[in-house]
Structure formats: structure tokens, C-alpha cells
Amino acid sequence: MESPLRYFSSLTDPRVERTREHDLEDILFIAIASIICGAEGWNEIEEFGKSKEDWLKTFLRLPGGIPSHDTFNRVFSALDPQELEQCFMDWTRSVADLCENEVVAIDGKSMCGSRTSDKKSIVHMVSAWAEKNHIVLGQTKVDEKSNEITAIPRLLELLVLKGCIVTIDTMGCQKDIASKIIEKEADYLLALKGNQGNLLEQVEDSFRFLPIRDSNEELDSGHGRVETRRCLVIDDLSLIESKEEWEGLRTLVKIESERYIKSSGKTEKETRLYISSLVADAKLINQSIRAHWSVENSLHWVLDVGFNEDSSRKRTGFAAQNYSLLNRIALNLLKNDKITKVGVRGKRLKAGWDNNYLIKLIKN
Question: Is residue 115 part of a domain?
Fold first, then answer.
């Protein structure tokens, strides 16, 4: 994977020039490298720099030595997050090899530790996760006094999605979002609940009265359970009154899931409904809906458990938003090391022990 560093070389330095003791490039490198190796805060980033100072001096300028934790805090609190995110997306666009029908899952995540006494001040990020590439393509912050409905179109506008299948949960089942996905020459699979007037009822009636065009069943076992997922697809939209308002709408989808929990002997059943611009290919749709959940398992879960993101208490300026992007840069680099056959935790340990491996991850 190409190094992200050159894509951040154009970042605007928020510091007054006469007071700069450290190069912005050095600060970015040390921050990314330390997070790869397990750092979770500004103090740990500083300690990483000090412990690796002799090695870092072989390729960084370090005119003022290793920056203090206060310097890291001040810089990342002041950096323009939109500019940083644009640099990030320029990098992911250069390294992502999006194939036909690749699932790009759009989902939001709150950074619980960023909450202050004002509960509305919690930082909430929306990310785009490419399931086959195993990388975060981009992210954007949900504005205060707003929600994901307004953030998702902004994120979609910045992404290259031609030929992909964009999957979003019920919050993203909006006409404007569907239109934006079609405009980006992609297809959509939008989860449906009762947030679109009578649409849910009309889809339910369609499966009650109209013929099924295609079906597919998959069986999956693991983690102490056996799950059967049955996908039913209809391409007759005659009962959908507002079908013309949904750009590209072609199919209605029902997923019937049945999970047998081995430890308890209990069986759980669930039915989910979707609308889609895809043709009536039940196997493709079934696999795409399952692939959507990789954003939870491969991104959000790893960030919470592996990077301890939920416990991060960075609250000054843009610190929380920018630090979340540093986590995603580190995760992209770790996920795309195909040679080292261990998990993310093992790779982080190896990077901390092996300078050659660490530099290869960042400057490959």
C-alpha cells in the first residue's frame, strides 16, 4: 500500500510560523507510527517518540527534538479536519482497487469519550468501509444539531463509487441519498423501517400479494450458532405508490434470518426489508447485505477493542475528530499488510518491536 505521507504534505499548518519548533511532517509521522504501535493518547505518542528518537533522527529532521504531548495536542486540535479528511480520501482513492459490485458500507459511530457535560457535544463520525479492500475510504463528522441524514450525502459526494453497491442502515433510507448514489454510478441497498411514510407497509404488502422473482438461502455456522439467511426478491413495484420518487428503484428485498444458539438451544428469528436499485439477483443481494456488517466487525469493533477509541477523552478543538482519522490511517495500513499472517493486535506488537516492519508499513 502506498504511503499516506505525501498526500498530507499540502496540509495547512495552523501554527504561527515564528513559533514553530517542529516540522508538521515530523509530527504527522510520529503520531501515525506511534498509533500503529499501540499509542492511545498524546502522552504515549510523546513517549514513543522519545524511545525511538535515535531511529527517527535517521530520516526525520526533528529540528526541535521530539515534540511534547502538549504540542501534539495543540496541533491536532487546530488542524482543519475537512482538509485532513480530504487528504485522507485522496490517499485512499489512490490505493483502493474497487471492483465491480464491491460493497461499500456506510455507517456511523459515536466517540463516547468525547462527550462533555453537554450530551449533545459528543463527536459522531460517518465512515465508508470498502468490504473487499478492507479499508476506510473516507469519513465525515455529523454536525451538532444534525444527524446522519445530512452527513451521508456530503460523504458520498467525495467518494468514487462507480460500479459499487452502497449499503446503509435505516437512517440512510432517504430519497436524496438514493439519488446521490445513482448519480455516483453505483447501486444502493437501503434498509427499511417505518421512517418513510407508507413505504414499509407497501413493501410488506408486495411480499404478501406479489410473486417472488428470485430467492437464495445461505447457511453459516460459527461463534456457537448456526444461522440461515433466506433472501426473497421482488421486481414488481406496482404496489409502491412513490416508486418514481426513488431514483433507480428496481427491487424490493426481504431477508428472513433464523439463528440457532447452541449454548441455550434457543432459536431467534428476524425479518428485515430493503429497497434496492439492483436487479433481481437474490444471491448477490444476500451476500451484499451480509457484507454490510463487516463495517461493524472489521472497523467499529476493531477501533473500540483494538484501538480503545470509545474510551478516548480528547475534547479540545478538533482533537477527537482528527485523532479518529489517525486511527483509521493506522488501521488501513495494518489491514493491508498481506504478508504478516497475524491479526491487527499482533501486527501492532510487531511494529513496536521491529523498526524495519514499522517503516515498511508506513513508507511502503
Answer: yes
One-letter amino acid for residue 6 of the chain: R
**331 — pLDDT class (breaks 50, 70, 90):** very high
Measure Cα distances from 34 to 17, 24, 64, 111, 190 in Å. Answer: 26, 15, 18, 20, 38
Q: How many residues does the chain have?
A: 364
Q: Which of 83, 112, 93 is nearest to 2 (CA)?
A: 93
CB 224 within 8 A of CB 263: yes
Query: 525511538: which residue's cell?
Result: 52
Task: Kindly state whether residues 281 and 195 are assigned to the same domain.
Answer: yes
Query: What's the number of domains the chain is made of?
Result: 2
Q: What is the mean pLDDT of the chain?
A: 92
C-alpha cell at 168: 446503509
Question: Is 358:30 a contact under the CB 8 Å cutoff?
Answer: no
Enclosing domain of residue 326: 5-80+318-363
Compute the distance between CA of residue 138 and CA of residue 104 in angstroms, rounded to an integer.
Answer: 11
Q: 55 and 10 share a domain?
A: yes
Could you report the per-residue pLDDT of 87-118, keeping only the tens digit for each? 999 999 999 999 999 999 999 988 765 555 55
Site of grid cell 531511529: 55
Total-model pTM = 0.91
151 pLDDT above the threshold of 70: yes
Structure confidence by residue, pLDDT tens digits, 244-258: 999 999 999 999 999
Specify the CATH number for the domain of residue 239: 3.90.350.10
- Strand duo 123-130 + 214-222: pairing: unpaired
